[in-house]
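Help!! Second protein's tokens look totally different from the first
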Amino acid sequence: MPKDWVSAQGLGDIKILTEDYPPYNYISSTGELDGVAVRMLAEAYAQLNLSLDKSTVSVQPWPRAYRSALNGSNMLLFSTNRTAQREHLFQWAGPITNVKTVLIAKVERNIEIEEAQDLKDYVIGGIRDDVAMQLVSEELAGEGTLLTSPYKKSLMGMLSLGRIDLWAYSERAAQRLLLESGFDPRDYESVYTLKHSQAYFAFSKNTPANIVARLQLGIDRVKDCQACLSRIFDERE
């Protein structure tokens, strides 16, 4: 397939947005954008005879990136959990990988959540427009106490100090962030599972359908390439 023809489909002109969300997308110790989703995108581009210039990917706080993709034109946001609430807001290519979204508490608190109704008894913190907080809001249906921050480190600090009881986030990402931020992950536990879902690449709604289809084709080809998958899911750090 000629490279010029693929480029003409417009993938090279899409503005790409992401956040610091290890192990899916993050800045590595060498200062390079890395992660499972970043590698998936790079491999999908390669399958289309394109090269992903990681330096052009804008790393932003999630609320800003999410709103930009939601209201902007020709933007690609990742990693984005695909849920019923978000389904009609974006166009989707993927999936990238599975994600378990949970509520995390300090072990010493001995918090037990039997059902969603129990959540109203706790102060729950999370990132605005993050899938975890969207799921919590659905569970509570207007009840309970929610506290949002655009910064994950602030939420970890508040959880550590008892200013929030529960932190809503991806289980795997939370474990890694706690460790990298100097907390002992063994002092924290998942006490309630909000959802098992999948992370996708989310295109702004008005993106031409053929562009979304091109990336999906690249991803489908990656899924049939065992060497590609090995490179994507290799744990480097």
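Here's the second one for comparison:
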Amino acid sequence: MLNKGDKRRCEICKIPCFERNNYFYGKRMTARDFQDEQCYFNEKRWLINRTVHGWGVVCGLDVKRTDDKKMVEVTPGLAIDCCGREILVCDDVKDRYVPLIPEEHECDLLLKEEEKQNVDQLIAICLEYDECKREIVNLPSIACDETEKHEFNRIRDSWKITPIHIPKELEYEHFCQRTKEEKEQSLHKYLCEKIAEGCQHCPECPCIILAIVTVENENVKVIDTCTQRKLVYSNQLLFDQINCFHGDLPRVTGIEWSYSEQTNEEIEQNPVSSTDIHNRTIQWADFIQKNGLKVTFNKRMYHETINKHTFLIAIITIEHSTRYRLLKYIPSEEIELIDNDDETTSAIFKFEKTWIEDELEDEKRSAITQSSEGADFEIILRGSSIFSNEENEKRKALDGSFSGEFPSGNGTQGTDFVSWFHVIS
């Protein structure tokens, strides 16, 4: 456990000044000089650990049942205590087996004696940094009347695991607990103000809680290894969390015309790649012969989310009197959804035949023929409302951000996909 001297050294502004040896020829080196050499580098590393990386469990250190129901096993792992000191629990140490007999500890909640006799009691498995002196070396006596003394040749970084009663305070300081007023300001401003208030301190009970064990009649009943466990969020762990929510997102892999009503010979004479639709110019006669516009996704999609509200095609027309660009959405006869053999989904927007007939019959009112240059068409997929269909996994919204190259996406869920093509009058 931390003694009072250790606690002072864990506070940011009470660290002794960082001072290192200045070497020169003829310098006399004493034990103090070599101790200061070690302290300089150790305390610098510990300072970075606790202020930049944080403290808690880094990896491993699970708490498991054993054949003996009156004790638990702590698996190997790594942790950083609130002073920044590394705690490495190795595989070949017997002390990893912890009997569930709470010891007197300064973190203990001062329970009444009758409360300790309850059938169910909660025991915290507490991990702490410790030092072990090793290799005794005998020192010769300096004067005739002095007896022989001994010292230790090594100091080993070690640890101890102690079963204790529930600590007084298990709530650690978190920045995310914002009030209503704080939520109205930007996240950067909130964090900036919080960090400016000062550095975090070691709590009153600085031991690392690995688990809370419920004991019934002196036997293990429940082991909770997550609720009160403080974690160190390493770069890899943060990356995995970001990747979990944003890495494997559904994306658009291509757009092309559907040719199900054309012969193979017609397809070969008029091939269209998936990238040709983007900013492509086609003749009106060719446009009305298409069976529909097909969009392919890189994953199986949740069919109910791809419909006339989320898969849109619009004509951009120019109002003659004001020169406003107006977006007129084309009615769809249906949106056909196909799950492909390669675990992808295709959605085909089929133009309503009545709309095409109206465009052909009434050239004066036709959006295509209002301008001699024809009209632009936009393809729009509402990314915030289109989701993948994955079993045993949270559905993810479409990453539709499109810069002209497939697949779409910039790593952000719920972005709209927008592309376009031009139809000549």
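Reply: Different proteins will give different token patterns, so don't panic. The chain has two domains: 4-21+30-232, 252-424.
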